[in-house]
Every structure is written in C-alpha cells, then in structure tokens.
Amino acid sequence: MGIIVHNTIDEKQDEDDREGDLQEMSKLFxxxxxxxxxxxxxxxxxxRVLHEKLEELSQKHRKKENRMVQDRVAILPTSSTEDxxxxxxxxxxxxxxxxxxxxDIFINGIWSNHFYQYGAWHGPFKCSMNFNxxxxxxxxxxxxxxxxxxxxxxxxxxxxxxxxxxxYKYGTGNPQLNFGHQCVSQMTWNPxxxxxxxxMFVSNGWTMIPGGLFEISxxxxx
Length: 222
Description:
Blueprint: H1 8-34, H2 47-72, H3 88-91, E1 109-117, E2 120-132, E3 137-143, E4 148-156, E5 161-168, E6 182-190, E7 195-203, E8 208-221
Helix pairs in contact: 1-2
C-alpha cells in the first residue's frame, strides 16, 4: 500500500520546470499567430520551428519520467526495519509459514502477505506467486484493502532475498487509496519465522522513500 507524499523541494523544482516550459511555449505563440488564419478555426505551423521546439520539450519530460522509474527501483541499502517502528515484532509475531527449514523457499502457489502502516498491521491478504528459475524472476497477482494488484520482481536463492514490485490496478478497490501506483519492497528471508521480511518503499512524487513494513509467507501450492 502506498501514499503520495508531497515534497516541497520537489514541488519547487517541478514549478520551476513548468515555468521554464511556459517560457519556451510563449516563444512559439507569435509563430502560431503568424500562421493563423483569422477567419478559420485551424492553426498552421511551420514544421521546422514549432515541431522541433515541441519535440525538445517532449524529450525533456520523457527523460524526467525515466528518472522517476529508475528511482523506484533504487532501494536504499542503509534502511532498516528498526528505523520505522518499534512495534514490528509484536505486531507480526503470529505471522509465519508452513515451510520447514529444509524446504525450497521459492515455491509456486498461494502466498499470504501483510503490511505495517499508520501504526497498525493490515492483512493478511492472499496472493498468487509463480517463480521462474531460468531468469530468477517471478510474477503474481492479488488483492488487498487498496485494490487489485500485480506482482513482479527478482529473487535470489543464494542470498534468499526478493525485490517485489507491487503495481495497483487503477479503478479497483478503495478509490481514496488506489492511485494506480507502485510499491517496492526489499525482502529478506527470516529462517526463524520462515517468512520474508522487509521495508516497503512508496513514492513521494519523485523518488521512493521508506513507507512501511511488508511481510510475505508461503501458504500452499497451486
């Protein structure tokens, strides 16, 4: 589950970007008016000037979007679950898996997950997960209090870790919580509890910041 967190620094930068774009666009207006027929509703543009300027602005925004996507998977390595809440162990003590210590911990089937936000644990919720041993990726889907979501990501049998990208389907679930956004969770296997534990990162509009705790465990095979 993710929240859109407003960041005043990013908002100021975005405002500066918008003002710069408006200044660029204002330079195009005289050219538009020059090719505007006053008795027609149609505008005619000089291709070399207007098209190149508009394409330049479009490329700048595409680069910004690409940086946002890259930031979403740039997990902060120094983050710790203990930095987020002192209630982690109490709230999730009864959340465990049926897997034994000798079992493969990446099994296709039904998994259970819950997350910690706003001072409380939410869940558990069921989801389906399928692991591809050829490229160490996985995919799945499920539903929680936010809405329907799809899962994707990477896993490693050597490090016993997963990076889960949870993408919500806009228009499903709770419209006040579901913005069609993504959450990214960096998970590590806890052999004592036989569950994956980790930090859930949410978007603040520009980058990903720690927003809660996430746990997931195997329930049964398909």
